[in-house]
Amino acid sequence: MKNKKFIPTGESLVQLIASILFFVVLVVIHVLDPTFYPTMWHLATSGSMEEIATYIQGFGPMAMVVSMVLDIFVNAVGFLPSIFISTANGLVFGMWPGIIISWLAETIGVIISFYIMRYFLRDTADKLIAKSTVLMKVDDFSGKNGFVVMLFARSLPYFPSGVITALGAISKIKPRDYILANLIGKFPSTALEVAIGTDIVNYQDNMSRLGIIVVVAAVVYFILWKVYKRYMNKRNSEDDIEKE
């Protein structure tokens, strides 16, 4: 029996080309700066906001660009914490500039991570979810509920970003809905992380503001949780009626 020749489909051909281009980009970055990957990894895993802030400040006028690249890298990898970089952005550039930089970088990073997991690292996404105690189901991110569920999940601060990305990657959520939900949902969560992180570092000067932020955030998220649960219960009831 003769072996059948593998004839690539249109989708597999696109994945192959994208993989090659992605690999080429990684190699080019290494050739241009051999220290880039070791430095990014060290900063992302060090947990030292002062060290990250010093590193970013050392680039002078290019500091914002470097900070965005570092933050995108961390979020694209998927399993590294970005809270330290977000806090460093608030310390280096100020509260609101730090929020905007972190928000855009984190959004771009999780979008890149989504495409990588969905089309190239599907098994990795499955394993990441299996190890998580997250209560949300993959089915919740699919169909009619995908946008709302992703929007709510991304709005939660300090939630494992890689788990949410993996859930979205293996679900049937449309890329358009994923991108829009992340663009909107990432703003409040990132803003809260930057604000709280910056005030904790400078707690002696911002203790009152930190307390107000925590209380207000707790109330707002409690209300959002109630609204979200009511929406999901209503949607599930409608789905049950349609099935009957």
Helix content: over 70%
* SSE series: HHHHHHHHHHH
Low-confidence regions: 4-9
Report the sheet with the most strands, covering strand number, pairing sense and barrel closure: none
Cα separation of the termini: 50 Å
How much beta, percentage-wise? under 5%
From the alpha-carbon coordinates, what is the Rg to the nearest angstrom?
20 Å
Oligomeric state of the chains present here:
single chain
Number of strands: 0
Average predicted local confidence, pLDDT: 76
Shape: flat
Question: With helices defined by DSSP (H or I, 4 residues minimum), what is the helix count?
Answer: 11
Instruction: Give me the secondary-structure category.
Output: mainly alpha
Please name the defining characteristics of this protein.
mainly alpha, flat, 244 residues, single chain
Summarize the topology.
Elements (H helix, E strand, L loop, with lengths): L9 H23 L3 H11 L2 H9 L5 H15 L5 H11 L1 H25 L2 H9 L15 H9 L6 H10 L4 H27 L1 H41 L1
Helix pairs in contact: 3-5, 4-5, 4-6, 5-6, 5-10, 6-7, 6-9, 6-10, 7-9, 8-10, 10-11
Overview of the molecule:
The chain has 244 residues and is mainly alpha-helical. It has helices spanning 10-32, 36-46, 49-57, 63-77, 83-93, 95-119, 122-130, 146-154, 161-170, 175-201, 203-243. Helix 3 packs across helix 5, helix 7 (122-130) packs across helix 9 (161-170) and helix 10 packs antiparallel against helix 11 (203-243).
Brief sketch in words of this structure:
This protein has 244 residues and is mostly helical. It contains 11 helices and no strands. The chain has helices at residues 10-32, 36-46, 49-57, 63-77, 83-93, 95-119, 122-130, 146-154, 161-170, 175-201, 203-243.
